[in-house]
Specification:
- By secondary structure, the protein is α+β, with helices and mostly antiparallel strands.
- It has one domain: Fe-S cluster assembly (FSCA) (GMP Synthetase, Chain A, domain 3, 2-Layer Sandwich).
- The chain has helices spanning 10-21, 67-75, 101-106, and strands at 39-44, 50-54, 84-88.
- Strands 1-2-3 form a three-stranded mixed β-sheet, covered by helices on one side.
- The longest helix has 12 residues, at 10-21.
- It is globular, with a radius of gyration of 15 Å.
Amino acid sequence: MTKEDFEMSPEEVKEDVIEMLQTIYDPEIPINIYELGLIYDITVSEDYNVAINMTLTAPGCPVAQSFPGEIEAKVATVANVNEVNVELVWDPPWTKDMMNEAAQLQLGMF
């Protein structure tokens, strides 16, 4: 496949990936992983391969082994996405300050 086979730009695909990430919820906090600030970086290549750097709320999180694969599977269903690689990173460590305002409001942190 070539870039001409697709009608969407990598930036448009990234927007769709973000929409998908907003449907995935942290198993312990009833807020999606994007608003929680667990997603540190999303890159969509010209070939529509997606690389996501993310963290978890704690290194000892019980879903640390399975969650990245679940996220890869869901993001792979986004139109035009080829391959997906989710990498868990621990630097910088996640803090509650990384949540967006909507998440903080939902948890009553204001």
